[in-house]
TrEMBL record:
Catalytic activity, reaction form: CO + 2 oxidized [2Fe-2S]-[ferredoxin] + H2O = 2 reduced [2Fe-2S]-[ferredoxin] + CO2 + 2 H(+)
Protein species of origin: Methanocalculus taiwanensis
Protein family (similarity comment): Belongs to the Ni-containing carbon monoxide dehydrogenase family.
Annotated gene: cooS
Binding site for [4Fe-4S] cluster 1: 48
Name listed for the protein in its UniProt record: Carbon monoxide dehydrogenase
InterPro entries: CO_DH_a-bundle, CODH, HCP/CODH, Prismane-like_a/b-sand, Prismane-like_sf
Sites where the protein binds [Ni-4Fe-4S] cluster: 268, 304, 342, 450, 480, 521
Length: 629
């Protein structure tokens, strides 16, 4: 129990989040002395100024080094100057993100291969139409059984990781003008893994020595993620688990049910979570839940796994990145099942305050203090049953007086794949293009990314989205940005009353929300496909479209890769938190000016979402003018 002054608690709550149920739960945590991400962030203050400006390097044992000009330390021991150290750190960060997305994509493609070989446990092909359509893109014969096509398509996808053809097949999806820009700039990815490996090579001491040369390779690595690893992750997930269509569900911490076994699915790869759903829905598990005193099993999504399940199954979500500890603090969570990425390593510590079991499942991401059930496509059904059973049997260990469910959930509509958007528009994107051309919709913005204690939780996402739709700009969202909008009530057709008259009219006519949930972070590749389709309909490059990207609360390496492939694809992108690059004016200038001359797009940094909206609106109007619309 905390002795913190109630006034201090109130101030902390108000400065930490705009999510109303999170506020109540943070207050509960502060009173109970349950540590959260915000507490740890405060404990880290003041953060190292060399690290936060990118001016420290600890890559080799001649160092660590810091650049401190006032003490005449202008180069590291190896001779690297501030520009190189900053660029090396940034390339490392971006490459980590590209690797994370792409490794996820590879695992899904390997699962498709097992399905093609008839060796997987419980997986099938749910979207044969998509399987055949993509197979045709790869010139794979489709006049045979789906399973045979799946086998060959899986091999073609896996080939993209280490191809020796010199280019990725999926990059051909880009408009000709965009593809030509990549060729001209020398940033066409030659293979997903190849660019990641080369980036790490360039980061080694004595290889990359020119900051701009290093960072241009970063764009190539990121393109291999967006148009490669992530796109494969999305496409194969659709083939195996179904292409999302609009679906209604609920969101926020209020989705927890007191009388049911609550199981949260947290992480990223739908391979695991889809099998958990199958297991939880089985009669055996439902009966076991009842035998243990529950009325049923309540599956709840978090972060990108949550987005995947919401999009395809309508499973409710407890929230985004910064809701992961709070959902444990409800005291009613019987198990949290995790795979990888964005999972706080301290979760077992949080769970130790309650009866909650954290169950890790990936040999890549074992977590001290968690239970471990190894999960693979070969043992999927069996592992999923073991996990669900563990959760169900934990129900009886709850401490009723510690249960704290902070309120009721809000309604959301999700599931806007490109296919679903096209269908909603009557089978073609032409009505959207016409609405943009007529000015009813001024443009579109992809709002993506995370939560970060440097920005009030959800404030950046929600404020930006509200401001943009007010100015008749359609928002398409993924990841934790989409979840922030969901909790704030923006993901329902009713939210169109917040939009300007033009966007409101279109949304009402089509029956869609003004903010479209397009999925998880790998599903930023859906945004690329949408942009390519819009640009092809207009006969222009992506860089000519009245569109922009934004990551108002980003924190992760994956978000750096996403931002970089947006910009490399021609999309002006505004970041909320400043990357750790302010120690190099040359790197800042390259990213916020110089790239315009290379890929016709650039970054901006603006933590204030209202000012970010101004930047984006100005950019969109300039693009409209250039197109003559
Ligand atoms: O991949 S938006 S906090 S959960 S990194 Fe992570 Fe960021 Fe959320 Fe999904 Ni994406």
């Amino acid at each position: 129990m905390s002795l913190m002054n109630p006034k201090v608690i109130h101030e902390k709550v108000e400065e930490r989040t705009i999510d109303e149920l999170a506020k109540k739960t943070i207050e509960h945590c502060l009173k109970e002395g349950i540590e959260t991400v915000w507490d740890r962030s405060e404990m880290q203050e003041p953060q190292c100024k060399w690290c936060s400006t990118g001016l420290s390097c600890s890559r080799c044992t001649m160092g660590p080094c810091r650049i401190i000009p006032e003490r005449n330390r202008v180069r590291g021991v190896c001779g690297a100057d501030a520009d190189l150290i900053v660029a090396r750190n940034l390339l490392d960060m971006l490459t980590t993100g590209a690797a994370a997305h792409s490794d996820h994509g590879r695992e899904i493609a390997e699962t498709l291969l097992l399905v093609g070989k008839g060796e997987s446990s419980g997986y099938t092909i749910k979207d044969t139409e998509k399987l055949f359509a993509i197979a045709e893109e790869y010139n794979i014969p489709t006049d045979r059984a789906a399973i045979e096509v799946a086998h060959d398509l899986a091999l073609a996808f896996l080939d993209e990781f280490g191809t020796i053809k010199g280019e990725l097949e999926l990059c051909r999806r880009a408009p000709d003008a965009t593809y030509a820009i990549w060729e001209e700039a020398g940033i066409l990815p030659r293979g997903i893994d190849r660019e990641i490996v080369e980036a790490m090579h360039r980061v080694h001491m004595g290889v990359g020595a020119h900051y701009a040369n290093m960072l241009l390779h970063g764009l190539r690595t990121a393109l291999g993620d967006g148009w490669g690893g992530s796109m494969i992750g999305t496409e194969v997930s659709d083939i195996l688990f179904g292409t999302p269509t609009p679906v209604e569900s609920m969101m926020n911490l209020g989705v927890i049910k007191e009388d049911q076994v609550n199981i949260t699915l947290h992480g990223h790869n739908p391979m695991l979570s889809e099998m958990i759903v199958e297991a939880a829905e089985s009669e055996v598990m439902q009966a076991l839940a009842k035998k243990n005193g529950a009325t049923g099993i309540n599956l709840i999504g978090l972060c990108c796994t949550g987005n995947e399940l919401l999009m395809r199954r309508g499973i409710p979500m407890a929230g985004n990145h910064f809701n992961q500890e709070l959902v444990i603090a409800t005291g009613a969570l019987d198990a949290m099942i995790v795979d990888y990425q964005c999972i706080f390593p301290s979760l077992p510590r949080t769970a130790s305050c309650f009866h909650t079991k954290i169950i890790s499942t990936s040999q890549k991401a074992k977590i001290p203090g968690s239970y471990y059930v190894e999960f693979s496509p070969e043992n999927a059904t069996e592992a999923a049953e073991t996990i669900v059973m563990t959760a169900v049997e934990n129900f009886k260990n709850r401490i009723p007086e510690r249960i704290f469910i902070p309120g009721k959930p809000v309604a959301v509509t999700a599931g806007f794949s490109v296919e679903a958007i096209t269908k909603a528009l009557g089978g073609t994107l032409q009505p959207l293009v016409d609405a943009i051309a007529s000015g009813k919709i001024r443009g579109a913005v992809g709002i993506v990314g995370c939560n970060n204690p440097k920005i009030k939780h959800d404030y950046g996402h929600v404020t930006l989205a509200k401001e943009l739709i007010k100015h008749d700009i359609l928002c398409v969202e993924t990841g934790c940005a989409a979840v922030a909008s969901g909790k704030a009530g923006l993901l329902t057709p009713d939210a169109c009353f917040l939009a300007g008259d033009g966007l409101k009219g279109i949304c009402k006519a089509v029956g869609i929300p003004p903010v479209l949930h397009m999925g998880s972070c790998v599903d930023c590749s859906r945004i690329l496909v949408l942009l390519a389709a819009l640009a092809n309909t207009l006969g222009v490059g992506i860089h000519q479209l009245p569109v922009a990207g934004a990551a108002p609360e980003w924190y992760s390496q994956k978000a750096v890769s996403i931002g970089a492939y947006f910009v490399a694809s021609g999309v002006y992108t505004v970041l909320g938190p400043m990357p750790n690059i302010s120690g190099s004016p040359a790197v800042i200038d390259l990213l916020t000016n110089g790239l315009e001359g290379v890929v016709n797009a650039k970054f901006a940094v603006e933590p204030d979402p209202l000012k970010a909206a101004e930047l984006i609106i100005t950019h969109i109007e300039e693009k409209r003018k250039a197109l003559g619309i």
